[in-house]
Please model this.
Amino acid sequence: MSDILIASSYFYKLDSKQWRFKQPYPPLATLLAASVIRNLGFTISLFDSSLKNSPDEIATYLRQERPRYLVIYDDGFNYLTKMCLTVMREASFAMANAAKENGCIVIISSSDAADHYEKYFQHGVDYVIRGEGEETLKELLQSLERNEDTRSIQGIVFQADGKTEVTRPRSVLRELDSLPLPAWDLIDMEPYRQLWMRHHRYFSLNLATTRGCPFKCNWCAKPIYGNRYNSRSPKQVVDEIEMLIKNYKPDHFWMSDDIFGLKPGWVQAFRDEVKKRNLSFKYKIQSRVDLLLEEDTIDALAQSGAETVWVGAESGSQKILDAMDKGITVKQILEARLLLKEKGIKAAFFLQFGYSGETKDDIHATLKMVLNLMPDEIGISVSYPLPGTKFYENVKASLHEKQNWSDSDDLAMMFAGTYSSAYYKVLHRYIHNRYRIQRGINQVKEWMQQPRIPAMMALKRIASMVYHVPLALINAVQLQKLGKANAR
Model:
């Protein structure tokens, strides 16, 4: 039996696109919250949704553990949860209803619940946590245990006497080293390891070094952790890495920060700590092209094991970048890509189509940028208006009835943009076609220069090129037709 059953609400198997990738990560923020409340003396059990087939499986845990509380705590470090996908919302509803039928008090911390708390109250949720959750969850549980009035607790929403009570926001935590390490011991790690090794031949785990983002990209998921940027110390981060390597043997890490190493000197101090302990691992991060161009940053990343850097390139059109308030230039994207390549670090581009005012010329500029720079990976999306962002306010008058994607492969335009959802879905395929064709062409050129080193990767890329040539032609024709239909 446990006092609290804590659950995550992202089910990889309910998101077919992500499940195809076979790159599942444990719910990091959920594990951190579990560690925080376990330190209060509560007994904790975990329902790890990541690899489960259905939210209905929580019923077994509720019967076995008979908890007083169900805490659904989203992994706010995982960008997939920030999309507020309706399939995961329905999963949360199912878990909350099941817990309520078992007599639990139900608490939820998630971006979607913070925006749509009335919907959650209709499905058995008693308390919604808004914003950064650890301190709020601690205070709420302590207050409920003492049967105190919860109106004085910052950062919650609940119903009382037929009214919805919204308390004032809580300030974000600044001293991140004061938090305990996540409760990694609650995770059954072997299924994760097996999936990674079977499909990728390495094992990756996730961790976070920062919270918050000081930049003003006006479409970005509203910052749970605020616009103030707070960092853990390099020493504490490397302590966690060392512990994870010792106990679980990962050889790769995903640093799930919005921006890795923004604080001056942090990346260099992190490199020094890693080298001092003779640790060897690879990792991937998210960063900004302007930050990567600062002196010694890419060198320090390379020396500490950085393998891939994802950047929000977004568009090859300076007009669109400026409209997004990105604060970067197309020239900086070029310079950062070339410098990363020079230092042996893979560059990966997030691309975004469909932003307000986008024209065919802007789309062509983005395709041209991709084919000229040929990043090692690309991720394509369309502009997604999330409540709490400036972009949402700009387009809310033209929002369609559908205001959330069902899963991460939805790619529906939820506002009146230049082109339709159908156009952007075909564009998504076409950009991938052209990218893979160009990658195959580049591989043929390299092979001709070094014919003695044929490799399986080269053969795969050339085969992919051949496969995508007819698809690119078909999708180009469809784009023409859809573009003309939108113009009428």
Observations:
- The chain has two domains: 4-160, 202-386.
- Residues 202-386 form a domain with the pyruvate-formate lyase- activating enzyme fold (CATH 3.80.30.20).
- The mean pLDDT is 94.
- The longest helix spans residues 456-487.
